[in-house]
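Supplementary Methods S3. Complex input for the zinc ion-bound model.
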Amino acid sequence: MSTDQSLHRIAQWLREASSAVAFTGAGISTDSGIPDFRSPGGVWAKNTPVYYQQFIESPQARNEYWRQKFEAHRDFQHAQPNLAHQLLARWESANTLRGVVTQNIDGLHQAAGNRHVLELHGTAREVECIDCQQRFSNDLFMDEFARTRIAPFCPQCRGRVKSATVLFGQALPDAVWRQSIDWIQNADLVLAIGSSLVVEPAASLPRMAHERGAHLVIINRDTTPLDQRADAVVRQSISETLQQIDRLAFPS
Ligand SMILES: [Zn+2]
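Predicted complex, serialized as C-alpha cells:
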C-alpha cells in the first residue's frame, strides 16, 4: 500500500471510529524539542539511568538521580505542544478520540488540551514521596536542588522524594495500567504514534488491540516490531502525517 492509500484508509477509519485511542511515545514530542532518550544525543546516551532499587538504597544514587532530573527540567520545562499534540486534542474534543495512552512524562498532551490522558510512565511535572505518597509540584524541589545539589527530602515526612515517573525496575502504576487495558480492549482503532513499540509492558497494548480486532495504525519514523501486523504503517513526519489524516477525515 502506498503512503497515500494508507492515509486515505486511516482517515476513513478515524471518521468511522466510535472508540479510537491514541498510543504515543517519545517521537511525538521530538518536534517540541524533547529528544527521544534512545536516540543519539538522547538522555541515556549521556547518563546512566538510576534504577528504582538503587534510588531506595543509596543517597549517592538519589543525588545522581536528582542531578539528571534537574538537567532535564532545566532543558525541557518550557517545551510546548506541537501540531501533532494539538490535533489529538482537537480530535478528543470532537469526540473522535476517546483519549491518549502515553509513554511520555512531559505533560504535553494535557498542555495541548487533552483531558483524557493515561500516563503509563507517570509525570515529570510532579514530585512524589515514596515514604508517605504525598505529591507536590516540582518547582520548589528543582529550586532547592539548584542551590544544594543534594537530593531533597519530603517536606511532610522527611522521606525520599522522586519525580512522579516510573523508574527503571519499578512497576507501572496499577490503576493507570488497568484503565489503559480497558480502553484498548474496547477500541475499534488504535493509532500508535511515535513509539518504537519495544518497551514492555507498554508496547503490548497495541498488540492487544490488534488481537482484539481493532484497526492498528503505526505512525513512526523507524520500523517497529509490530509493523507486519499493523493494518497501516506510515513512516514520515508525525505532525505532517496527522495533519494529512485530519484534512482527509474532516475536510472543512
Ligand atoms: Zn513523605
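The longest strand covers residues 122-129. The mean pLDDT is 94.
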